[in-house]
Structure formats: C-alpha cells, structure tokens
Amino acid sequence: MPAYNEADYIKQTIDSIVNQRLLPSKLIIVNDNSTDQTQDIIQDYAKQYSWITLVNRSSQNIHLPGSKVVQTFNYGLDTVSELEEYDFIVKLDADLILPINYFETINQAFLNNRKLGLVGGFAYIEKNKEWVIESLTNKEHIRGAFKAYRTKCFKEIGGLKPAMGWDTVDELLCLYYQWEYNTIDSLHVKHLKPTGAMYNKAARYKQGESFYRLHYGGIITCIAALKLASKKKKPLLFIDYLLGYYKAKKESLPYLVTDEQGKFIRKYRWKKIKEKLW
Question: Strand order in 2-3's β-sheet?
Fold first, then answer.
C-alpha cells in the first residue's frame, strides 16, 4: 500500500483491513515522504499487529499518475523475499474502505477459477451523503486503487510497469498470457478521495503518452481519448490526450510492451470497439 500524506484517510483504510473476515498474511505500507501524520499512524498499527509493516521511502514531492505510485509499490514489494509463498498480491490505495468480505471474496474467486489472474471490486464515492458508483468505473476494467493478482500471473506479466497506463497494460498482458481478469460488482469499495485529485497540470498529458506507449496507434488513441474525456465530462482533455500522444511519438519514448504484445493489444482493442458498434 503506497501512502503519501494520507493522514485524513489511512486509519479508515487500515481498520477496514484489520476487520476483514480473511486477514492478509502481510500488509506492507510504504510511507512515501509524507509531511503529515501518516507515518505515526502506520507505526501505531504496526505496533499492534505483527503482520503490518511500515517501510519509509524518500522521493520527490510531485504527484504524477502511474510512475510514482508504482515505484512506491515496487519499493515495498522488494522487501518480500519469497513471493511464491503467497497465493495472491493486492495493490491498494491508502484512501479506501474495503467491505468486510473483500479478501474472502477475492480468495474464493481465485479458488473457483484457476485461470483467473486478476480481480477487483467496484469504486464508490460519497455524493450528497450517499455512496454512488464512481463515474470512471467500468465493468471491463479493474480500478488501479484496488487490484488483486494471482502471484503466478503477476510474475508472468512482469509485475507493474512504473508508468501511466500500468493499470491497463496489466490487464492486456493478462489476456496476452492467456489469463482471465474479472470485476466483482458485489464488492463495493468506498473511495474516500476523488481519482486524480492530487495530479498536477503536467499529468494531463500523461494519459496520451500512455496510449502511445501501449502501442495503440493514432486511430485507437483518438477513440480512447474521446471516450475518456467524455467520461470525465471535460471535452478539452481530448486535446491534451492527443498532444501527449504525439509528444511521446515525437520523442520516441520507449514502449511498455513488445511489438508482438502491441499487435495483440491493437487487435483486442479493435475487437472491443467493433463489439460496441454492432
């Protein structure tokens, strides 16, 4: 669990984990250079529960989607010596409230389907004192805030890529290596902080950059950018995404996937586009 200045939320998150019907074998919380009381809060829990570990990391005080959070996640993962000892690995944000049966349901899903490599619930946010599904939620996509990976699948896809788009490339590589992924709509995860609330202005171009690095190509990028800008109800983001894409193309940024994986991704994306059109 990467955590940066989450003092307002992290208690609720840890409490929801401590109260799970199926407890995790280990909870590693990586405090990434927080300037509030985040570290003190984690330390208090680590003293009470032997399976909770605090890891401190120092990085730049800049919040960009993708790269920083995955770097922090990987920093914590490096402290685990024998990954194979664990059935599945969960990446969690520090601003969530999990339902009491979250890990129990995830575990059962993995047991029921040996080809399931990745699974998660649905995000809900509070509006007018009611918890409603977050607008970015999609039944065909597991939110990056809470992803559970079968360990074998996690290793086969090469772990998480420290770049914007990591929570899309993992699903696409999951399919490439003939694993399945699934969302469980009965698992309502309370997301206490709106997605992207901490992103700075430079982050708006990163989405387009990720489309390039995923080997989408120009046409699929246009369709994906239009869809995402529409979902966020910010039409001008479409321009930002395209600018990010062509900037990345001009600079010949390295791809996140191989050419072969890229061909698979484009074929899969076109298949999904055609399914929705017909």
Answer: 2-3, 27-32, 52-57
pTM (two decimals): 0.90
pLDDT digits (tens, 9 = 90+) for 151-206: 999 999 999 999 888 999 999 999 999 999 999 999 999 999 866 555 555 667 88
d(CA 83, CA 80) in angstroms, rounded, equals 6
